[in-house]
Design goal:
eleven-stranded mixed β-sheet, Cathepsin D, subunit A, domain 1, 11% helix, 6 helices, 45% strand, mainly beta, single chain
Length: 312
């Protein structure tokens, strides 16, 4: 479900967000620390990639925080450098897992840590990548929704912090605090296949969106926008999905987008004929992807404990 966007040599200000330095004030201190949670700082790389610095088997790694991926996935070459090889279920047989129709080998990481948070040992999917990056821009894999949900993560897209619940018996409801800070609560839903979705509407037409921090922009399915009367402008950008499917990414002006009860700012959004594996999630038909540009600009907080998305 994670997308990698290839930029062409033209100016695309409509699709980019500028990430200013965030300074927490006294009245939003709750968004920089949560009692009973361990906070791990993230940083943004080009194309709005939310990157978490981690250690895998003691080696430094950069992981994309990706709620659009159901599993932790490592680039095969990076995994090999961490000492992770495909696991064998029996002599001569390698264990595989299926992701978006692809059969990927599975490896075993002895230890994964980030900041003061230790996730212990876990199974990871291994995938070959032609665009792992180099140096500080290197991305070694994705931190998927399985691990994020297991540790009841709270992802604050604006303050660049991900909180992991350290005390499972500690109960915290962010709803009242978020309401006092003028956030709107939008209920999250896990589909049968594990995908994370939210309700939305355009011109009064109801739909659902995949919540995907691995997508650098919000993208609507072209047929859905045309069905509600939104015109589409061509661009020279294409999106490459993990299955190898490529789609032209155009733009559409939307003035009345609502995400739950939250009215999103007017603006231009990505438009593409999305592949079927994105549109059909666990029996639910989706109409698009809620990406990092909207989540950041609308102060998005994803709470996987109470299963709410907070926007303002």
């Amino acid at each position: 479900m994670s997308k990698h966007i290839r930029r062409f040599p033209i100016v695309l200000a409509v699709f980019l967000i500028i990430l200013p330095r965030i300074v927490a004030s006294a009245n939003d201190a709750w968004s920089t620390q949560l009692s009973g949670y361990k906070a791990v700082r993230v940083h943004y790389k080009p194309l709005n990639k939310m990157i978490m610095s981690a250690r895998i088997n003691g080696q430094r790694a950069n992981l994309l925080v990706d709620t659009g991926s159901n599993q932790v996935i490592l680039n095969a070459a990076a995994a090999a450098s961490f000492g992770i090889k495909p696991s064998q279920v029996s002599l001569g047989y390698i264990q595989f897992t299926q992701i978006n129709g692809q059969q990927l080998p599975v490896g075993f990481a002895q230890n994964l840590t980030a900041g003061s948070m230790s996730f212990g040992s876990l199974l990871v999917a291994l995938r070959n990548s032609n665009r792992p990056g180099t140096g500080d821009n290197r991305v070694d894999g994705v931190l998927g929704l399985d691990l994020l949900a297991r540790h009841k993560a709270v992802i604050n897209c604006q303050t660049r912090l991900v909180f992991f619940k350290a005390n499972q018996s500690r109960q915290m409801d962010l709803s009242s605090v978020a309401a006092a800070e003028k956030f709107t609560r939008v209920p999250l839903r896990r589909e049968r296949n594990g995908a994370l979705t939210v309700p939305c509407s355009i011109h009064g037409q109801s739909a659902r969106l995949l919540v995907d921090t691995g997508s650098f922009v919000t993208i609507f399915h072209e047929a859905f926008l045309k069905s509600v009367g939104i015109s589409v402008e061509e661009t020279r950008v294409s999106a490459n999905f993990t299955s190898g499917t490529a789609r032209r990414l155009n733009a559409g002006q939307i003035n009345d987008l609502k995400i739950g009860d939250f009215k999103a700012p007017r603006g231009k959004f990505g438009v593409a004929p999305l592949p079927n594996f994105t549109l059909l999630q666990g029996g639910t038909n989706l109409s698009g992807i809620l990406g990092m540009d909207t989540l950041y600009n609308c102060h998005g907080i994803i709470d996987l404990d109470s299963m709410n998305l907070f926007l303002k």
